[in-house]
Design a protein that fits this description.
The protein starts with 17 loop residues before the first strand and ends with a helix. By secondary structure, the chain is α+β, with helices and mostly antiparallel strands. It has a single domain, classed as NE0471 N-terminal domain-like (2-Layer Sandwich), CATH 3.30.2020.30. It has a three-stranded antiparallel β-sheet with strand order 1-2-3. A three-stranded antiparallel β-sheet has the order 4-5-6. 15% of the residues lie in helices and 32% in strands. The protein binds zinc ion. The site of zinc ion has 6 residues, from helix 3.
Amino acid sequence: MTIKKILPILGQPNPEQPTDVHLVGRYALGISWADNHSSIYPFDRLRLDDPAFEGQPPEALTDAMAWPREIKKLPDALRVVWADGRESLYPYAGLRALCRCAGCTGGH
Ligand SMILES: [Zn+2]
């Protein structure tokens, strides 16, 4: 995984600061950022992208593993407690870098 570094510009909204965290449908998390960008993270993708795995995600996800029981906005990270009891911490900078929208991935 490559982390794109975003240079913060003083006086401008910080693109790594979420303004809103909400559900998108039943299977995804949506985050709006301070620079008006919106990202969508499907739950299963989010679980596989847990920074703690360090490139070694589990082979297969069960339903419980990809189902968030609690989502909390901390000052500098998003905390997700999954239905199987695992707790994942997503620092906002890393989360923003995980955005897979066309604008962020350079796709069309
Ligand atoms: Zn994006």
